[in-house]
Design goal:
This protein has 327 residues and is an alpha/beta fold. The chain contains 14 helices and eight strands. It has three domains: 147 residues, no CATH class; 79 residues; 75 residues, no CATH class.
């Protein structure tokens, strides 16, 4: 995996975004066998941009290190977390309560990285054992399930899936978008600020799907006429659900064609042909996303447009741009 360019500390830089994380991924020896699952990409790369808030729910509920291992048993939709060697050990309720409590305490985190396949922290495909049968891989860790149920919309991912470039970039985009929403709430939510937030993210939303883009537009149009708190809660859930579906090359190419429309009177035939070639190259996988977006930013520096200048799709947070490989 390629390393990101060096970044010099800057006293004027904004504070690092806080992410919840399974403690073992930071190298803390909190696993049942006294070991860890240190993930170097998380600490060496993401750690330069994010502040991690480590949690080991099994230690938090009083299980020692080392400790008797646990597993999920029963129906996949509502399994119990019980001891492998001693089935009388049942920590389901404690893990569930821990998840709900930490969701309240970590109200300022903008995302969460969970340990995969863990009976407490796994987000998906956790083994669930049945009496006398083969285990299925349809479970979710008890702590993770409780935490995410209490924080719907919070960007969350497992460490293994972050090795996939497309999934990693999607997670990064969701984290920075969610952080902007948290900043909006902290500044005081008003109908005008909700409309402004939506307007800034229009092209980003369009890259993830046209239907939700339209639905959110209709929802925002009701700002000022309906209860703002309920409307905003529904908006951010749909917004984050939309971003959770990775943007496809075809949709991104359509967004870039839309952006090109703002330059139709400014660019000559040669500039248009060059830009079209790069957009087509990205759509077909022959060019990286950075190529057409860099050229678009170049043209908009020469021919500024007030609407485009505030679009997060073309002008994200500089840290987000670095983490997503400059696009």
């Amino acid at each position: 995996m390629s390393r990101l360019p060096a970044v010099k500390p800057d006293a004027a830089s904004p504070p690092r975004i806080r992410l919840g994380i399974s403690s073992c991924l930071l190298g803390q020896r909190v696993r049942y066998d006294g070991n860890h699952k240190h993930d170097r990409f998380i600490t060496d790369t993401l750690g330069r941009f994010f502040e991690f808030v480590p949690v080991c729910p099994e230690v938090a509920i009083g299980l020692g290190v080392p400790r008797a291992p646990i597993r999920l048993v029963g129906p996949a939709a509502a399994p119990r977390a019980v001891g492998i060697d001693d089935s009388a050990l049942d920590v389901t309720d404690k893990l569930d309560a821990c998840g709900r409590r930490m969701a309240r305490e970590l109200d300022d985190v903008s995302g969460y990285i969970f340990k995969s396949r863990s009976p407490s922290c796994g987000m998906e495909r956790v083994k669930v054992y049945q009496r006398g049968g083969m285990p299925s891989k349809r479970g979710r860790g008890v702590y993770a399930a409780a935490f995410l149920a209490a924080r719907p919309g919070l960007p969350a991912e497992e460490e293994g899936r972050l090795n996939d470039t497309r999934l990693r970039e999607n997670f990064i985009e969701r984290v920075f978008s969610y952080r902007r929403w948290q900043a909006l709430e902290a500044s005081g939510l008003t109908p005008a600020r909700l409309v402004e937030f939506h307007t800034r993210h229009k092209l980003a939303l369009l890259a993830h799907g046209t239907e939700t883009y339209r639905q959110l537009g209709r929802l925002v149009a009701q700002a000022g006429r309906k209860g703002l708190k309920a409307l905003a809660d529904g908006y951010i859930r749909r917004f984050m659900d939309a971003l959770a579906h990775p943007a496809t090359p075809a949709r991104q190419a359509n967004v870039m064609m839309h952006l090109m429309g703002y330059l139709k009177r400014e660019l000559d035939a040669a500039d248009k042909a060059e830009l079209l070639e790069l957009i087509h190259g990205f759509r077909t996988g022959e060019a990286p996303l950075a190529a057409p977006l860099t050229l678009l930013r170049h043209h908009f520096r020469s021919f500024p447009h007030p609407y485009v200048a505030h679009q997060t799709y073309l002008y994200p947070d500089p840290r987000e741009l670095l983490l997503r490989g400059g696009f």
